[in-house]
Amino acid sequence: MFETLGNKLQDILERLQREKTLTDAQVKVAMREIRMALLEADVNFGVAKEFVSRVSEKAVGQEVLGSLNAGQMVVKLVHDELIQTLGGESKQPTLKNEGNVVFMVGLQGAGKTTSTGKLAKFYKEKGRRVLLIAADTQRPAAREQLRTLGNQVGVPVLEVANGETPAQTRQRLNEFQQQDFRDLVIVDTAGRLQIDENLMTQLADLQAALQPTETLLVVDAMTGQEALSVAKTFDERVNLSGLIITKMDGDARGGAALSARFVTGKPIYFAGTSEKLTGLEPFYPDRVAGRILGMGDVLGLIERAQQADLQSMETKKAEEFDLEDLLNQLRQIRKMGPLGDLIKLIPGMSRALPEGFSIDEKQIHKIDSMISSMTMKERRNPKILNASRRKRVAAGAGTQVSEINKLVKMHEQMKDMMKMLQRMSGGKGMGALGG
Ligand code: GDP
Ligand code: MG
Predict the structure, then answer these.
(1) I need a surface site. Which of 107, 121, 279, 371 has the fewest CB within 10 A?
(2) CA distance linking residue 395 with residue 393, whole number of Å
(3) Does residue 113 line the site of ligand 1, with CB under 6 A?
(4) Does 144 contact ligand 1 (Cβ within 6 A)?
(5) How far is 274 from 271, CA to CA, in rounded Å?
């Protein structure tokens, strides 16, 4: 499917006369394919229809960018619009110093309990004092599941007793807080296999008693078409503040994310990427947009066309290439989507990387979080990273000192390689990571 959509579009549109601006006919033909791609990615059909008509309106009459053909131009517009619809930039909940209560809701099996554990780990590593509340009294094993996760992460778990009223739970939370104050409380709730009036009332009552600062809907990426009605109903009944999409490590292309976001307009904060506690990542709209379109090849073409941007990146002497530059470049690269192919497009990149160093999304994410945990002074002058600083940075990034050592070493090697390449090319400054 991935190739066919791109090829088909190119074939059809290249046969149409090449114009400077997109014509009504071109857009119409292209959008038929785009709608199919959205449906295959399990985007709700109503959403797909509305989305397509919205982009079509914008597309007709649009100038076709220099090196793109009409088909690629349409895909670019659709891709851009998908990113916007999915929220644009990656966002995270804004927490206060204290008094944060995060209320997790969703259908049974969506991943609420797992995500509660993941969030506990995520925020504990950021220095938060976390308390979990096991409020799923529906399933006998649910509280035990959360207790186990709490133990693994090292945070306490307050278990709601059978038959306890929301007011009593509130009371017990207050008592806990007086003994052992926590600035972030995450509440795991019960779910059902389907939207259920009884459950909604229960959730609304508990929500009223606990007064959460965030109410997050956990949506299984595999939900498909149903994601729309689930998100809509939960939003109507418990007024969501954000979304978490789980199981993005599976086959799902991300259509559920688009549907849920489209109907609620609420930000998608995180993506679940494994069953493990470490399987939580910020949600990146650009990556998911590419995945929904499932058009690595066509997007790749567009990226190549846009390579000019990459090459025009500030030219810099190898000597001055510091960790902040590395971070900025990695982020710029990441914004452009699938990495594997792209990385090869950067002149000198493959040679600049130390042996055995494979660049994948996770790796980039890791490097990002390590450099992000450094002060600007440290990024600009990595030499000052002594043992105690490395220890602090490692803790901040939730990793080991040995990883920081590797990063510093890698940066040194990249610098050396750049110096060498610069000598070879006659000592001029270089764009990107070399060449
Ligand atoms: P709940 O009923 O909403 O609390 O769902 P659970 O947290 O119990 O998760 C249901 C199942 O989905 C469990 O087997 C989890 O391990 C699994 N799960 C949750 N999140 C993810 C994820 O992001 N990726 C994968 N692969 N599995 C997940
Ligand atoms: Mg659960």
Answers:
(1) 279
(2) 5
(3) yes
(4) no
(5) 9
Judgement on whether residues 313 and 296 belong to the same structural domain of the protein: no
Cβ contact 254:82 at 8 Å: no
Which residues, in sequence order, are CB contacts of 244 under 8 Å at separation 6+?
Answer: 111, 115, 216, 217, 218, 219, 268, 269, 270, 271, 272
For residue 230 the two structure tokens come to: 């689930």
Residues 48 and 167 in one domain: no
C-beta 272 within 6 A of ligand 1: yes
Residue 272 covered by a domain? yes
Q: What is the pLDDT of residues 283-326, one digit of tens each?
A: 999 889 988 887 654 565 555 555 534 443 445 667 778 888 77
The residues facing 185 across adjacent strands are 101, 131
- 363's enclosing H/E stretch is helix 361-372
Q: What span, in angstroms and rounded, lies between the C-alpha atoms of 397 and 125?
A: 8
The H helix count followed by the E strand count for the chain is 20, 8
Boundaries of domain holding 36: 2-88+291-302
Give CA–CA dist 209/191, Å, rounded: 18
Asked whether residue 433 is domain-assigned, the answer is no
**How close is the Cα of 359 to the center of ligand 1, in Å?**
28
Residue 103 has pLDDT above 60, yes or no: yes
| 294 close to ligand 1 (CB < 6 Angstrom) | no
Domain count, the chain: 3
- E strands, 250-387, where? 268-272, 280-282
Indicate whether 390 and 327 sit together in one domain: yes
45-52: long-range contacts at Cβ-Cβ below 8 A with a sequence spacing of 24 or more?
45/225, 46/228, 47/228, 47/258, 47/259, 47/262, 47/263, 50/262, 51/81, 51/82, 51/85, 51/258, 51/262
ipTM of the prediction: 0.99
Decide if 431 is inside a domain.
no
Whether residue 232 sits in one domain with residue 219: yes
Whether residue 434 is contained in a domain is answered as: no
Helix, strand, coil proportions of the chain in percent (round to 5)? 55, 10, 35
Same domain for 249 and 162: yes
Q: How far is the CA of 190 from the centre of ligand 2 (A)?
A: 6
- 141 and 42 share a domain? no
Structure tokens at 136: 């799923």
Question: Which range, of 32-41, 131-140, 150-159, 383-392, averages the lowest pLDDT?
Answer: 32-41
Tokens of 385: 């990273």
**Cα separation, 263 vs 289, whole angstroms:** 17
Q: Counting atoms of ligand 1 from 1, which one is nearest the CA of 250?
A: 26
Query: Which protein residue has the closest C-alpha to ligand 1 atom 20?
Result: 111
Pocket test for ligand 1, best of 199, 246, 270 (most atoms within 8 A of CB): 246
